[in-house]
Amino acid sequence: MSRPEPRRAWGPFLFGLAGIVLAGCQSDPEPRHEQAFVMGTMVEITGIGVSEATFREAAGAAFRDMRAIHDALTPVASDSAMAAFNRRATADWTPLEGPLRPLLPRALSVQRASGNAFNPHLGRLVGLWGFREPPFPGQPPEQSAIDGLLGAGAGDWALALRRGKRLEARLTQPGAALDLGGIAKGFALDRATRILRERGVSDALINAGGDLRALGRRGDRPWRVGIRNPRDRDAVMAVVALEPGEAIVTSGDYERTFQHDGRRYHHLLDPATGRPARAAQQATVLGPRGTEADAWSTALFVAGKRGLDLLGPTQPGLVIDDTGRAHANAAMRRRLDWQSQEIPAP
Amino acid sequence: MTAFLTFLREATTPADRVALVAAWAGMVVLAATAWSAPAGQEAVVIVGGEEVRRLNLANEQRITVDGHLGPTELRVRDGGVRFTHAPCSSKRCVRSGWQHRQGASAACVPNEVMVRVVGNHSEDWDAVNY
Q: Which of A18, A36, A250 sits opposite B20 (nearest CB)?
């Protein structure tokens, strides 16, 4: 048998090499976007490597589920599951319906672990401050009114659960009322992630008003998220590459605010004082589930840098304290690609 | 270099060499195009979850779109876009200012109007957490 001609052997190889290099130079796969106004915010879902029809159908299902969660948990509508719970639960053990059933045990778990820095039943205080929905009031409530609610146990430990044939809950203080604004969006992120995956979307980024959860990767790289500078909305302080399935949630003193006598008042209330927490400008938490990351970002914001000890060594946390200084645990420091020149890296 | 050229001449046919030159030239053009693309050339205007307009950010302009609550005005200037008037009560959308960077967005939530800067330049991040 004669050996093949060298030119026949090498020509296709070199041509193939050029093709491989060309393929490597092609731009990223085109992302698809779907968006909806739900849960009082703008929710955007970005998908990669999925057909338009599949992505649109999956995103639509995720948005519908978010609307259902909002309708069940809004404290504003008197016919919501949460409003019904609040009417009954200070008097009786009340069966948990809809999203309250999976959510309340998880809320109670973070409340315990954070030493009440995350408190899921500040509803009456939030209502007193007028932070439920815009327009927000131009001045804080009377201190006597705040003291009255605190005296009625509004900021205490007031949520009790019991498991019998059904899961039931009760509010043990008359000043308490559920308000799950500090955890509901994270829960909705988790449910949306599951819905997308079940409907054939394997790589996506869900952005619910700045709280995010990744599904898979963005092509050949992870999803990357910039963490905003709390005092400059146009500046990104640091960048984090999300692991597949990971959530990142931030709480800051710049959302739901009003100014009075030159002071900013925001909606993240300290259960101990009944007033806006002042220990931090911003707190960010990464985690495998949006629900807990959301609750912990609130807890960390309320507790300030001491909250990093409560968070533990493995869950990444970042706090910008009231003076604008950055603090992070080791788990977060490993993840941060620090960009800010104004704020020194933690 | 001479040895490589000799090898190339012996290992390929003239047709192979023409195809190789065309492929490598295409690669250079593609790379140059990708690296020179400017950030954020357009703004997408979304009302009620649906895209209704695309604005070229190189063209100074004012437009009005009908939101859920009423007419909403957007302005384009110096490669950026912003809300200048909205019928919502909080005016957070107006206060959010100019959006320049690719991926930046602003929304008037009660009015269900959103604007997002888009382009084909690869950014350092895919979204902003706040």
A: A18
pTM: 0.82
CB contact at 8 A, A156 and A173: yes
Report how far residue B54's alpha carbon sits from residue B118's, in angstroms, rounded to the nearest whole number. 10
A residues 219-238 lying closer than 8 A (beta carbon) to B: 223-228, 233-234, 236
Residues B83 and B109 sit within 8 Å (Cβ to Cβ): no
3-state secondary structure (DSSP) of residue A171:
strand
- The answer, yes or no, to whether the previous bond of A135 is cis (omega within 30 of 0) is yes
* SS3 call for B38: coil
- Say yes or no: A4 contacts chain B, CB-CB below 8 A: no
Compute mean pLDDT per 10 residues along chain A, 346 residues long, and list them: 51 55 54 92 95 97 98 91 93 94 97 98 96 86 98 96 95 96 97 98 96 96 96 91 98 90 94 98 98 98 96 95 97 97 96
Predicted pLDDT of residue A179: 96
Interface of B with A in 30-49 (CB under 8 A): 30-31, 34, 46, 48-49
Q: Which residue of A15, A224, A254 is in closest CB contact with B125? A: A224
Candidate from A25, A63, A218 with C-beta closest to B27: A25
Q: Does A93 touch chain B (CB under 8 A)?
A: no
pLDDT band at B10 (very low <50, low <70, confident <90, very high): confident
Sheet holding A159-163, edge to edge: A94-95, A167-171, A159-163
Q: How far apart are CA B19 and CA A17, in angstroms?
A: 12
- Contact list in B for residue A287 (CB cut-off 8 A) is none
